[in-house]
Write a structure and sequence with these properties.
214 residues; mainly beta; Jelly Rolls; 2 domains; 6-stranded antiparallel β-sheet; 0% helix; 53% strand; globular
């Protein structure tokens, strides 16, 4: 991943400015399999209708945007299928992630396309356990939801690529190398490639994880 601090707390929505009457994009990741951009749109701006060859996944960090007559707000997600014509309108200053995935349909899992999805409602807590739900699983990128019961955590481990943690509900303690941080809604972190890390829930905790493998 690029253009993001790694191994430290960050706020994605503060990583990109708003400019009057402008749409701004900042690349976070690019490969043959995936492409991730952080966008900001000033109120009452739009991106004109276009067709894309790949799946487009939109995750709203703040504000309100409209895609295919569906209004999306904070922490909601929308998936557009390939060769699907759509535009994007911002009703207020808005920021979001756009994740492009060159994928066969079978690699897009467990979520419907073309409808508003509240991610934290797509996975349940299990008493004394940790739940995982894949959204995308293929070469180069893996996106999943995770739900941790209070006090539950993962053993320290490393990953073959950078991993962006996007908290959806609750609070957790994370270890990156020998440094410890807390994450919660609006406070994200990138686990750097090949650096040991873990997650331990302080309260019941849900998150989206985006792992990008070079």
């Amino acid at each position: 991943m690029q253009n993001l601090i790694k191994g430290k707390n960050l706020s994605l929505i503060n990583q990109i400015p708003y400019r009057k009457n402008q749409t701004i994009s900042k690349r976070i990741s690019l490969s043959d399999e995936q492409n991730i951009f952080l966008f900001s749109m000033y109120e009452n701006t739009d991106i004109s209708s276009e067709l894309y060859q790949e799946y487009k996944i939109y995750f709203i960090l703040g504000g309100v945007i409209e895609i295919k007559n569906s209004k999306l707000s904070k922490n909601e997600l929308f998936i557009c299928e390939p060769l699907s014509l759509f535009d994007i309108k911002a009703y207020e200053n808005s920021a979001f992630l756009e994740i492009s995935v060159n994928s066969k349909g079978e690699n897009m899992k467990n979520l419907n396309t073309g409808e508003i999805i509240s991610l934290k409602n797509e996975i349940d807590y299990v008493e004394g356990g940790i739940s995982n739900l894949d959204i995308v699983s293929q070469k180069g990128i893996k996106i999943m939801l995770m739900a941790f019961d209070e006090g539950q955590g993962l053993s320290p481990h490393s990953a073959p690529g950078d991993a962006l943690v996007v908290p959806l509900e609750g609070k957790a303690k994370v270890l990156v190398g020998d440094e410890e941080f807390e994450v919660e809604e609006d406070k994200q972190i990138v686990f750097p490639k090949n650096i040991a890390h873990n997650v331990t829930a302080i309260t019941k905790f849900k998150m989206m994880l985006i792992l990008v493998v070079d």
